[in-house]
Design a protein that fits this description.
The structure holds 2 protein chains of 2 kinds. Chain A is mainly α. Chain A starts with a helix and ends in a 10-residue tail after the last helix. Chain B is an alpha+beta fold. Chain B is built from 23 helices and 30 strands. In chain B, the strands form 6 sheets. Chain B has an 11-stranded mixed beta sheet with strand order 1-30-2-3-6-7-8-9-17-18-20. In chain B, strands 4, 5, 21, 26, 27, 28 and 29 form a 7-stranded antiparallel beta sheet that branches. Chain B has a 6-stranded mixed beta sheet with strand order 13-14-15-16-10-19. The chains are: A mainly alpha, B alpha+beta. At the A-B interface, helix 2, helix 3, helix 4 and helix 5 of A face helix 1 and helix 2 of B.
């Protein structure tokens, strides 16, 4: 999935959190094929996987100590922190993408899906 | 329909974006914080990895940095500018948030980052003149070309680090609290130094003492609070001759106007928290034949750690020791020739004067010469998410008016309607002293450096490679008549003026005394032979007496012996008092558990060992006994305001068991010494169970009185809590609940110099780093790390694990 690959590369180069909304939004605007609903769920899953996966990777490699500090501060376990990262990224991306594609669909109202029979 | 759907989705998306992007009160912006690519996940141990080389435009020549296995940086620079640039750069790498937080707190700017809760804190800092003092100090530091170069280079180093920070590498506390680093300036260094000055000299008891004097009278005040300790050895050996008389000897005036004490609600029980030990032993007493210097400053412990360990080798010297994050140079340490360590002088350098204003406008105040104009210093307190607050400080010739009559105080014990005269308000350049100490090659250089110490005054212990030892009670101390400064003063009475300063060469000091050692533990520096009056709130006798006892006894001293002494936990107070208490206690009516408690105390070796229950029991009994004796004397309007020192109780026990003080004046009975012992023992025995449960592990000293090292901003989970510790405020190893030895150092001045040290924390300020608190286990165990003192950049040592080379830009590096 192109969006996820590009987002992953951009995030590694530039860690700003809002890219997780900006990039799915742009891809949403370009999307003509998928339905809003389908794209919404795809982006949620994809980005939850990206942010959750990165969080799990860091937790298991370098970030054990800092995660422990945040656990103490927030009073939650590290799995909740991983889930919070995954959900935040996923939902933000899902809505941004769905918004992008729903705007696109306003202007592509006359384009009927081409059915190849 | 599609438009409606798009509009709804757009609205949700915008709301989601704003909700995740904006901070929620003091909580961090969620999106940025939980983002694994840039949020807290990135403040991990990868940040500990040291760069191999880096080109830096601001430096002039190559700087080599060697990292040891505790991530202490060993810096080798070719010129002073680059040396202090590197110190700033490295300190920012490890402690940026900490140093900025201290500078903001000192300057009364916390509300800018933590909001309205800190407004009164900020007002207090500004009103006590922290900014005013820092600006005055900055003027002197900038007027001296040596300190100016260091301050500017240090700031430039900090800023070079800030400039290369990224969203991901921003220190965790900034991410959590939702702010970003500001550029570092020399003023911030001045503020950090003033913060230290306030924490070491800002204790103020005049209000409490004035109120007590009113109810007790002068003779009782002398007995309970003011008579010099009979049990404490002075810092300067008593046989020391003073080859001078006080030039302008002010006598205590026959009559002075005493200020009527203020409202009781601002009274408090002052706590003497900060204390320290240092000593030096002469070659005649050591096994190696070299002098040994030791120092352990006791401060309020926190993480990130108070000290930053570093080696600074430049063209004028090679110095190792600990620095304060935010200030260039090393504060406690050694170089190729000398070593030095500090304890707080505790001599009083702060007076309060009652100010009478002419009218509500508070612009003119009464003085001995009639009405005087106060000058007004505007202060603007910025507040996060709220409008700024305009405040002002009134400056009189008696000092700064901290609070008006009707204002409530931020700290208890601060008098209202009074001006604060504090030596730290005057222009001074302590940085010059430390830079000279860093480069000093002999005793003459050391003495010369100390001329720059103004506030906080410190006891500087000294040892050198030639085998000389010395101790100086150094600082800018006002000349006053005996007793001046104990009580609130009258601004209109010229007898309360300060009569100049004790000249630096006449402050208490001794060089190579016959006893073969020098030592200080915040006690009274001199006896009555010393020509000047030094009013001070000196520490109780126990630490000083124990150190003196041990150093006197010991011979063939090794560094290991000195470590044993630094971690000594013999409770001298218990050793003196307990045998008498046990023999005098009426044991006929004791219950079962009381009998068991008595046995615990009988079998005790007087060590405040973490594994013993007896120290907990003794502490409970002694504290109760001490309080029951004095609370009837010192209770004013239902508040016990200030207990006499424990040694007053000790003296009474040994010298006058029939004293009327043992009687509780609030009861009809006439209590005696043994009644007080029985009453307090029964109460203590009962309290032990109610505080610590049935007899068991929870009674052990290390559990009942554990130690916590919290994060500076009190972030839960960022500190270390309930550490089982040995020691007591009065033992040489002076560990308390949140205070204790912030750095322990032992230096043997041989060839090569050998040194050991430890502190309760770690080099890194990053809570996600392995080096954040890695030294705490060794500190707890009383172990030391060998300090890796590299002689040259070519020196190899097995503990060196990495190297970073800072390269000047080629165009500038050529010459």
């Amino acid at each position: 999935m192109l969006m996820l690959m590009i987002l992953a590369i951009v995030q590694i180069l530039s860690p700003h959190w809002w890219l997780v909304m900006a990039i799915p939004f742009c891809f949403g605007l370009l999307n003509t094929e998928k339905s809003v609903f389908r794209l919404f769920w795809q982006y949620i899953l994809a980005v939850a996987l990206l942010w959750g996966g990165m969080a799990v990777y860091l937790q298991m490699t370098y970030a054990e100590l800092v995660v422990g500090r945040i656990e103490g501060l927030a009073g939650v376990s590290h799995w909740i922190l991983v889930v919070a990262a995954a959900l935040t990224g996923g939902i933000a991306a899902g809505f941004a993408g769905a918004t992008g594609t729903s705007i696109r669909k306003i202007f592509s109202a006359t384009e009927k899906p081409v059915s190849v029979s | 329909m599609k438009v409606l759907r798009a509009a709804i989705l757009l609205a949700i998306t915008i709301a989601l974006f704003l909700g995740l992007h904006l901070p929620h009160g003091l909580n961090p912006p969620i999106g940025a914080f939980v983002n694994p690519f840039g949020g807290f996940w990135q403040n991990n141990r990868q940040l500990d990895v040291t760069a191999e080389d880096q080109t830096i435009s601001q430096i002039r020549q190559t700087v080599k940095i060697f990292w040891d296995n505790r991530q202490v940086a060993h810096v080798f620079a070719e010129n002073n500018h680059d040396l202090y640039f590197a110190q700033g750069f490295l300190t920012a790498r490890d402690r940026l948030w900490q140093m900025e937080f201290i500078a903001l707190a000192a300057g009364g700017r916390l509300a800018e980052v933590v909001g309205a809760n800190a407004i009164e804190h900020d007002r207090f800092r500004r009103r006590t003149g922290m900014r005013y003092a820092a600006e005055n100090a900055l003027d002197s530091m900038m007027a001296n070309s040596v300190t100016r170069e260091a301050l500017e280079a240090y700031a430039s180093g900090v800023n070079a680090w800030i400039d290369q920070l990224t969203t991901a590498s921003l220190p965790l506390e900034y991410k959590l609290m939702g702010w970003t680093p500001e550029q570092w300036t020399p003023l911030k260094t001045a503020l950090v130094l003033k913060y230290m000055a306030w924490s070491l000299t800002g204790r103020t008891e005049e209000l409490v003492m004035t109120r007590l004097r009113k109810s007790l009278g002068d003779s009782l005040m002398n007995v309970l609070y003011l008579n010099p300790s009979k049990l404490s050895p002075t810092i300067i050996p008593p046989e020391t001759k003073w080859p001078f008389q006080q030039e302008t000897m002010p006598d205590a005036p026959d009559s002075i106007r005493h200020i009527a004490p203020l409202a009781i609600n601002s009274l408090f029980q002052p706590q003497a928290h900060n204390g320290s030990n240092n000593w030096a032993v002469a070659p005649a007493k050591t096994k190696s034949g070299h002098a040994i210097l030791c120092n352990d400053p006791h401060l309020g412990l926190h993480l990130p750690s108070i000290w930053y360990e570093i080696q600074l080798a430049g063209p004028e010297g090679n110095t190792y020791g600990v620095a304060i994050p935010g200030a260039p140079s090393i504060i406690i340490g050694f170089n190729e020739n000398i070593s030095w360590g500090v304890t707080n002088a505790a001599t009083d350098v702060l007076d309060w004067y009652k100010i009478d204003f002419r009218d509500e406008s508070r612009r003119e105040y009464a003085s001995a010469d009639g009405w005087q104009q106060a000058s007004v210093r505007p202060e603007i307190i910025k507040v996060r998410d709220q409008p700024e607050i305009r405040d002002s400080v009134l400056i009189t010739e008696r000092g700064l008016v901290v609070y008006g009559e009707n204002e409530s105080t931020f700290q208890k014990g601060i008098p209202v309607g009074m001006a604060l005269r504090w030596t730290a308000h005057d222009a001074s350049n302590e940085l010059a002293a430390f830079m000279r100490l860093n480069r000093a090659s002999d005793y003459a250089d050391f003495k010369d450096a100390l001329r720059y110490i103004a506030c906080p005054g410190q006891n500087f212990a000294y040892a050198d490679r030639m085998g000389n030892i010395a101790i100086h009670h150094a600082g800018k101390f006002p000349v006053r008549w005996p007793g001046q400064g104990i009580y609130l003063a009258d601004s209109q009475d010229p007898q309360y003026d300060w009569d100049g300063w004790i000249p630096a060469d006449k402050t208490p000091q001794v060089f190579n005394p016959a006893q073969g050692y020098v030592a200080s533990a915040n006690q009274r520096p001199v006896d009555e032979q010393y020509p000047y009056y030094l009013g001070g709130r000196y520490a109780s006798f126990e630490r000083a007496a124990r150190i003196d006892q041990e150093l006197q006894r010991m011979d063939n001293i090794t560094p290991a012996d000195m470590m044993t002494l630094q971690t000594d936990v013999l409770n001298l107070r218990a050793q003196m008092a307990l045998p008498l208490m046990l023999s005098a206690l009426d044991t006929r009516l004791l219950g079962l558990s009381e009998a068991r408690d008595l046995d615990l105390l009988r079998d005790w070796n007087y060590l405040n060992d973490r594994n013993l229950p007896a120290p907990t029991l003794f502490e409970e009994w002694w504290t109760t006994f001490h309080q029951r004796i004095w609370e009837d004397e010192v209770t004013i309007e239902n508040t016990a305001v200030k207990f006499p020192k424990h040694e007053v109780t000790l003296s009474l026990m040994f010298e006058d068991t029939a004293s009327v003080f043992f009687d509780d004046r609030r009861t009809e009975d006439k209590e005696k010494f043994i009644d007080m012992l029985s009453l307090s023992f029964a109460e203590a025995s009962y309290q032990m169970t109610s505080k610590y449960g049935v007899y068991g592990d929870t009674w052990k000293w290390g559990q009942a009185r554990s130690t916590s090292i919290p994060h500076m901003a009190r972030l839960n989970g960022f500190g270390r809590y309930d550490l089982p510790t040995d020691g007591h405020g009065t033992t040489v190893n002076a560990i308390k609940k949140t205070h204790g030895p912030s750095w322990r150092m032992v230096v043997e001045m041989g060839d090569p110099i050998k040194a050991w040290g430890i502190y309760p924390g770690g080099q890194s300020g990053n809570p996600g780093s392995d080096y954040y608190d890695d030294m705490i286990p060794a500190w707890l165990a009383g172990d030391y790390e060998e300090l890796i003192y590299l002689k040259t950049a070519a020196d190899n040592h097995r503990a060196i694990t990495g190297q970073t080379t800072l390269l000047a830009e080629p165009a500038r590096g050529v010459y």
